[in-house]
Automatic annotation (TrEMBL):
Transit peptide in keyword set: no
GO molecular function, one term: UDP-glucose 4-epimerase activity
PANTHER family documented for this protein: DTDP-D-GLUCOSE 4,6-DEHYDRATASE-RELATED
Protein name (record): UDP-glucose 4-epimerase
Length: 350
């Protein structure tokens, strides 16, 4: 990569989770000193097995809802990668209060701590759910609809806080709107498991996976390694280059609002592959991906049920802005990523 984060001290929140733990492994490979803050509410210590063997790694068990903990975690760090949150639309519908406390109050605690500590850039996990009920495809960053769930609201409010902190305090913030991330270490268990690990786990056990709706809903499924690349670039692109490229993007793209002047960087980017796959296509692809390991999987049927509240029908990103400004260049298509994921889950669960 042209720009890299190397030999820096960084904080990864939510580092015991799916995305955070993969990010930590990449950062450690580049000789960074990594602090991980996690309360293990959905994360798993097993995800940190490799990291714990590295002397550049420190684990801090704590909650982002506690301001002192955030201050302690961020001390001396140049970059923050904020991944900790309670994911899942259905979880936020079942318990909007806890999702709000963690995803908004926790976010502001950490952003405040980062600004107090003088971090160079605050990179955070935003979400494609922010597009809400807006129908247009592909999704472009500056056009969003109304939020469809408490989770989506929390993620949008985070973007507002990030922008506001940049305007007021001058801290650089970059939000990455992830689109249905999948891959190694994503948890297949529990009521709020994401669709790919849930289907894979069901099929390996010869159980019929359950599709919400008629299977025509579609998503821009994004392999984890693309997401790691986006995070590293979001932190590494130097401010001056970032601003120049952003100006080029803004002047070359219809409808993008203001041209930044001397304001601190505060931008959001779609992180996706830029294609979409229906749930029916996903079901067929996963069966195909697992059948080489166990032929009986080809016989397992899917079941269908009603649509879920809060779900959007279709989602697909434009990744033009990330390509232009960050130099984002996703290496894994949905199919290539799915083959990697199937191999990993089979090895783990067989
Ligand atoms: N996976 C996706 O498809 C996806 C899509 C859009 C956005 N995101 C966002 O990406 C981030 C990472 O998601 P993930 O899929 O790795 O989820 P995950 O559940 O695997 O990881 C989240 C981590 O945050 C930790 N955490 C939760 N509450 C905490 C708290 N109060 N204090 C400290 N740590 C806490 C959890 O223990 C867990 O380790 C989240 O912000 C999520 O909202 C994920």
């Amino acid at each position: 990569m042209p720009y890299e984060i190397k030999e820096q001290k960084v904080l990864v929140t939510g580092g015991a989770g799916f995305i955070g733990s993969n990010l930590i492994d990449s950062l450690l490979l580049n000789d960074n000193t990594v602090v991980c803050l996690d309360n293990f509410s959905t994360g798993n210590i097993g995800n940190l097995e490799d990291a714990k063997k590295n002397s550049n790694f420190t684990l801090l068990e704590g909650d982002i809802r506690d301001r002192e903990t955030c201050m302690k975690a961020v001390a001396g760090c140049e970059y923050v990668f904020h991944q900790a949150a309670l994911g899942s639309v259905p979880r936020s519908i079942a318990d909007p209060i806890t999702s709000t406390e963690v995803n908004i109050l926790g976010f502001v605690n950490l952003l405040f701590a980062a600004k107090e500590a003088g971090v160079k850039r605050f990179v955070y996990a935003a979400s494609s759910s922010t597009y809400g009920d807006h129908q247009a495809l592909p999704k472009v960053e500056h056009v969003i609809g109304n939020s469809l769930s408490p989770y989506a609201i929390t993620k949008y409010v985070d973007e507002l806080f990030a922008k506001n902190f940049s305007d007021i305090y001058g801290i650089e913030t970059v939000g990455l709107r992830y689109f249905n991330v999948f891959g190694r270490r994503q948890d297949p268990d529990g009521a709020y498991a994401a669709v790919i690990p849930r289907f894979v786990s069901n099929l390996i056990q010869h159980q019929s996976p359950y599709i919400n709706g008629d299977g025509s809903n579609s998503r821009d499924f994004t392999y984890i390694d693309n997401v790691i690349q986006a995070n590293l670039l979001a932190a590494a692109v130097p401010s001056i280059v970032f601003k120049e490229r952003l100006k080029e993007y803004q002047s070359s793209t219809a409808g993008v609002p203001e041209v930044i002047k001397e304001a601190a960087i505060s931008e959001v980017f779609n992180v996706a592959f830029g294609a979409r796959t229906s749930l029916n296509e996903l079901a067929v692809a996963i069966k195909k991906g697992l059948t080489p390991y166990d032929k009986a999987i080809s016989q397992v049927e899917f079941q269908y049920g009603p649509n879920r509240a809060g779900d959007v029908a279709h989602s697909m990103a434009s990744i033009h802005k990330g390509k232009m400004v960050l130099g984002y260049n996703p290496q894994y298509s949905f199919k290539a990523g799915l083959n990697e994921a199937c191999a990993w889950y089979w090895e783990k669960m067989k």
